[in-house]
Amino acid sequence: MRALCWEGVNDLRVQTVPDPVIVNPHDVILRITMSTTCGSDLHFIDGYVPSMLPGDVIGHEFMGVVEDVGPEVKKVKKGDRVVVPSFVACGDCWYCQHDLYSLCDNTNPNAELQAPLLGYPTGACFGYTHAFGGYAGSHAQYMRVPHADVGCFQVPEGLRDEQVLFLSDAAPTGYMGADFCDIKPGDIVAVWGCGGVGLMAQQSAFLLGAERVIAIDRFPERLKMARDHIGSETINYVETPDVLAVLHEMTGGRGPDACIDAVGMEAYGTGPGYLYDKAKQTLRLVTDRGQALRQAIMAVRKGGTLSILGVYGVMDKFPIGVLMNKGVTVRTAQQHGQHYLPRLLEHAVKGELDPSYLATHRFSLEDGPRAYAMFKNKEDGIVRAVFTP
Amino acid sequence: MDAGSPLGGPATSGIADALKGTLSRGAGKASQEQRRVTLILGGVLLTLGLRRISFGGVALALAGGALLYRELARRSGQAGAETNMAEVARSITIGKSADELHRFWREGGYLPRVMGHFAEITETDMDQAHWTVRVPGGRSLSWDTQVVESRPGELVRWQSLPGADLPNWGEMRLRPAPGDRGTEVTLRLHFQPPGGTLGAAVARALNGLVPSLLVGDALRRFKSLAETGEIPTLDRNPSARASTA
Ligand SMILES: [Zn+2]
Ligand SMILES: [Zn+2]
């Protein structure tokens, strides 16, 4: 089959690779109908996270049709049209049984190698680094999905592919981020980042009862999406010299009740802090740029919630004292998609959640390298590049 | 892989340093070129194996350690001296009862799958098994084990029989975990390296590295098999690499 492969830093190529087969009894083979780029892919494309190997098939946000099922698969059937969260979960371990699916104990074949990095290993993610399992990803014609009964969610009739695709990763991540905020009537939620995850976090905050949502980004077309599709108020931090002062005034001097960081180590700032981070990152000293996160920590009200969705490695100059003195609750995780998918599909069927506007650009799989170049440079107002292999 | 990789950092260089010490001291005493080559080969295999992100790599590392060990054991036989024990113990919590886990471990077919990342195991009867570890270059190391103690819900203990290429013994202990967490399982492996300075160096190397990965992987495989009925794997994982060794 054809697949988009990582061959080195900033070197993606479409290659012919072996077809996947059923290996374990709970596996299915999926024919991929749609797959999309995610900001966290840029971390290994740019070489900021370790343990990729040349030839790895990438991609972790996808949907497809079941082609083949393993002998122990009970619920999923051949021909089912399904959407699958990007983290693989077994459904049986203590973490899965406590709805902490991305922390699954039983899906990462490289758990012993990841453990030294984190203290304890997490579940695996499709199409990501070998520390996160090394499973072949979704930018391919076919894909093996382990523990299919836990990960495959049947798509209800009447929903188009692009309405469902983002329920694989961006929507559950954003929804979880808003869920972490424990939103009460009257709450104001500020969201850093208007990429796929940030926009989904904003929409989810409204679905979960937020009074107002404030979105912070630097791209006018993305901020317009936040206003037009979601009803967020927006701040362009390039045009606004003091984001904290603006947030202060917009919230009557209280600060947002909850702040969601949906940017991560991609964060692009303007001040000296940004230059310091960027210089270190360029020198491969790999402490993350953390402008958005530091700003969110300052902005959040006393006793409020900081919800971190951005993916970080190591960050220095981290203002832990601000969190402590303000009594901030910090919540964070990789997405527990298996917990949120039923709810998200329900919202989609009712017409309350339609992320199809994220699919700004379509490509064939053969155009994968060009699609990622555009996505990385945010050319032509691209939010997500979608492949139809 | 690069210096930022999970195994590229201090852990590997620690082993490599230990080996370098072993090898240089060994070279001074060794008289036969062939033994020197075996030593170096063992060291290289061990370091190589530890640098590779794969279960194959772990097997390679173990084989390297075993080769090194065997050569040193032969040499210490000449010198005759004190003995060092290398031991590694690791724990994991598994969401099954101690009785179930004991039964699984003793069930035919379970052990070969749990240890399948480094050894080929043939169970000759309920208490005896034959272990084979392949070494690149067509060689292999093997030994037989005998279960010497088995108490349902508590422990299983085994030891290698005389003539083993890498004498060892091990045990799996079970105790209930608090609340709804299942059972705490501790897997302990003992190796008996030769005496002397060389033996001590090997013991250090064996102690920190190979067995820890080996035992950690074995425990995770046991847990996944017991909890889900399968072991996560990258077998036949599509990639643009020529082979997925
Ligand atoms: Zn993602
Ligand atoms: Zn699990």
The best one-word shape of chain B is: globular
Form type of chain A: globular
Number of helices of chain A: 14
Strands of the largest sheet of chain B, in order across it? 1-7-6-5-4-3-2
Q: Which structural class matches the secondary elements of chain A?
A: alpha/beta
Strand content of chain A: 15-25%
- Radius of gyration of chain A, Cα only, in angstroms? 20 Å
Q: Most extensive interface, residues per chain?
A: A-B, 55 and 36 residues
Largest sheet of chain B: 7 strands, antiparallel
Q: Share of helix among residues of chain B?
A: 40-55%
Enumerate the spans of chain A where pLDDT stays under 50 for 5 or more consecutive residues.
none
Radius of gyration of chain B: 19 Å
Give the number of DSSP strands of chain A.
18
What does the largest sheet of chain A look like?
7 strands, mixed
Cofactor (chain A): Zn(2+)
Family (chain A): Belongs to the zinc-containing alcohol dehydrogenase family.
Domain Alcohol dehydrogenase-like N-terminal (chain A): 25-156
Pfam family, one (chain A): ADH_zinc_N
Give the structure's gist in a few sentences.
The complex is a heterodimer of chains A (389) and B (245). By secondary structure, chain A is an alpha/beta fold.
Keywords:
heterodimer; A: 389 residues; alpha/beta; 7-stranded mixed β-sheet; 6-stranded parallel β-sheet; 14 helices; 18 strands; 21% strand; B: alpha+beta; 7-stranded antiparallel β-sheet; 7 helices; binds zinc ion
